[in-house]
Design a protein that fits this description.
Helix 3 runs antiparallel to helix 4 (143-150). The protein has 240 residues and is an alpha/beta fold. It is globular, with a radius of gyration of 19 Å. The chain has a six-stranded parallel beta sheet with strand order 2-1-5-3-6-4. It has eight helices and six strands, in the order βαβββαββαααααα. It has helices at 39-46, 76-82, 129-139, 143-150, 156-162, 164-170, 176-203, 214-222; strands at 25-29, 49-52, 61-63, 69-70, 84-88, 106-109. Strand 1, helix 1 and strand 2 form a beta-alpha-beta unit.
Length: 240
């Protein structure tokens, strides 16, 4: 099986080649993901992000499951001066990964959003490194910087498109509490829309002449694709 932790630091690119990029980006790579698909390693190869050893501390925002607060505009100054770091590990091994050993003061969670990466497309929370970083940058007011790193992936623009309504809501928020409330409002709206569709379908249940359209059937099959009831907040990368 896969190891809980592999030292990939020695193989990482140590010299950043984009001095004009204003945000410091970093990651702890636990060596559990497919190196060819890992978005964090690609950002490292491109010179946007540096790899950290498990023993290294980070003074910026750290996206990890041990966070107690959700990223919000309040974190903008921390991001501006100290940057953003992610934990790159497999979702399948998240419980076995020594994330608690990561050193830093500003651990954060991300609010509800869905992935656009090919491996977990449409799934809540299962974001890649680049999606998690881009979301953090957008929530803290660095939208151009978020788009810059996403543009290195052919599916990157889809991440903003899938979550456009959510991001519009989150960008209006200043604090973590407001972000959580916006998340709750969105999920409640999704639940109401789902229930309305179910009720509308039941109105025709006894009508022998009613034939559902293909669009109706697809909606029933996929009605929770972007509106999950799962409110668990996690932010590490997965095998993508």
């Amino acid at each position: 099986g896969k190891q809980k932790y592999q030292d990939t630091h020695s193989k990482a690119v140590q010299n950043l080649s984009h001095p004009e990029y204003p945000i410091k980006l970093a990651m702890w790579d636990f060596g559990q993901c497919d190196a060819k698909k890992c978005t964090g390693r690609k950002l490292n190869r491109l010179g946007y992000l540096r790899a950290l050893r498990l023993s290294q501390a980070f003074s910026g925002i750290i996206l990890s499951p041990v966070g107690k607060e959700t990223v919000s505009f309040t974190d903008r100054e921390i991001v501006e001066h100290s940057g953003v770091a992610v934990v790159d590990c497999s979702w399948a091994l998240i419980d076995e990964t020594p994330i608690s050993k990561i050193k830093g003061q500003h651990h954060r969670l991300l609010p509800f959003m869905v992935a656009a990466n090919p491996v977990n497309y449409g799934k809540p929370f299962k974001l890649t490194c680049v999606e998690a970083i881009a979301a953090t940058l957008l929530l803290t007011g660095f939208e151009d910087e978020a788009k810059t790193i996403l543009n290195n992936f052919k599916w990157g623009h889809v991440f903003f498109e899938l979550n456009e309504d959510l991001f519009d809501r989150y960008k209006q928020c200043k604090t973590s509490t407001e972000v959580i409330q916006a998340q709750q409002d969105y999920l409640e709206m999704c639940e109401q829309e789902k229930n309305s569709r179910v009720a509308e379908s039941s109105d025709y249940a006894d009508d022998p002449w009613f034939i559902p359209s293909s669009d109706d059937e697809e909606e029933q099959e996929n009605d929770s694709e972007g509106c999950s009831d799962d409110e668990e907040e996690e932010t590490p990368d997965q095998e993508a």
